Every structure is written in structure tokens, then in C-alpha cells.
């Protein structure tokens, strides 16, 4: 089974949890896009939902596929958000998100949600966050070099994300520093330390936020729920 089929399988399973009348947070990324399409299929069959998009990209897709959208101003309480992740730590189900560049809006919508369901293929599961890739940190463009140095003092090698030769700009007009920390022993402590750095807008560490993680692999689907932090 290819990766896209696994992503789609996890997405379809998550969308089964959406009930009529719900306000649904719509994640960003290739896996979340499958969830948007699966939700749109149900909307075409008569399901009534309001979608809260976590990026301009997701808003465009949802609108094109016929999902009615709202804002957190209109719907401050979100029933369920379905989103992807870059890494999921087994046990606590802490996450790294943001390789798709939408981590700030994703975290705001996740924090407003009763439930956050994360959908991944099994390649995203790790013993420790940071084992596979960098931790994205969204920062203010002003003085980003000083912010990068402060992140490096915490042990992460910070690289400014670029696209087509320019600094990548998030939907909020910020930069992203992709920080290589290696395996992260205490994600909650690191998240708090990063948040204290002036210039940091948000980090891609999502600790204690996931209600469940739906994992698709060759053998089928597994639904993980968080256990207490070690
Ligand atoms: O955090 C994200 C975007 O900011 C995505 O959820 C994350 O990057 C996973 O993306 P994909 O499903 O394409 O692997």
C-alpha cells in the first residue's frame, strides 16, 4: 500500500467521528487534505458542518469542495479538529507539527477544540520527538537572527526556511526557523523554554493536545490515546 493510501485510510476513519451540526477544525498538509475531501463527500450527502480552516490553502480546498467555513470569532468553541503531524511520540502522544508551515493557526484551532484527532501513517511514530526531522518554530521577521541565536543556546541548530530563494512567509507573515534539536527528552520543558524567547511566535511542539492519533499502516488502523508523560 502506498503512503497516500495509508494517509487517506486514516483520514476517512477520522471523518467518521464527525457528527451533524459540528464545528470542525480543518488541518493543513497532505494527510489533512484527504480528511477535507472525505468530509466534503459527507457534506454532499447532507451532513451539516462548519469548517474552521487552519491555513489559506485549506480554506481554498474546503471552499472548492463545498464545505461551509466559519471563523473562531463566530465559533470560539470547536467540537473536533482533524489534522496531520510530522512526528508523534509514542505514549504521551506529543507532536511535532509545522513542516507544512501552518503551525500557529493549527495550534490556535487545536487549543479551541474539544477534541484533536491526529491522522498519520505509521512512519510518523517515534520514541522521541526530534528523531526524524527539525522542530519548526514560527518567529517574527524583525531580528530573527537574534531569535535564532537564542534557540541555538537551547541546543537547536536553527535554519531559516526558504522558498524559491526567499524566506518562507507563513499565512501570518512570519518566518519559520527549522531547528534541529535531535531527540527531545522533555518536550513540555523545551516548549516552555522556546515560548519564553522574545521573537518566538509559536513552536511546533504540541504537548498534551492530541485526544487520539489514528495510525494507518499495512496491517490496518490503530487508534492511540495518550498515556501519562513518563
Ligand atoms: O503541521 C502540519 C502543517 O503545518 C502538517 O500537519 C504536517 O506537516 C504533516 O503534513 P503531511 O500530512 O503532509 O505529512
TrEMBL record:
The keyword Isomerase applies. Its EC number is 5.3.1.6. The active site is at 106 (proton acceptor). Transmembrane segments: none annotated. Pathway: Carbohydrate degradation; pentose phosphate pathway; D-ribose 5-phosphate from D-ribulose 5-phosphate (non-oxidative stage): step 1/1. InterPro entries: NagB/RpiA_transferase-like (IPR037171), Ribose-5P_isomerase (IPR050262), Ribose5P_isomerase_typA_subgr (IPR020672), Ribose5P_isomerase_type_A (IPR004788). Keywords: Isomerase. It catalyses: aldehydo-D-ribose 5-phosphate = D-ribulose 5-phosphate. It holds the Pfam family Rib_5-P_isom_A. One of its GO terms (molecular function) is ribose-5-phosphate isomerase activity. Gene3D superfamilies: 3.30.70.260, 3.40.50.1360. Coiled coil: none annotated. Substrate binds at residues 28-31, 83-86, 97-100, 124. NCBIfam families: PRK00702.1, rpiA. Homodimer. Catalyzes the reversible conversion of ribose-5-phosphate to ribulose 5-phosphate. PANTHER family: RIBOSE-5-PHOSPHATE ISOMERASE 3, CHLOROPLASTIC-RELATED. Belongs to the ribose 5-phosphate isomerase family. This is Ribose-5-phosphate isomerase A. It comes from Gloeobacter morelensis MG652769. The gene is rpiA.
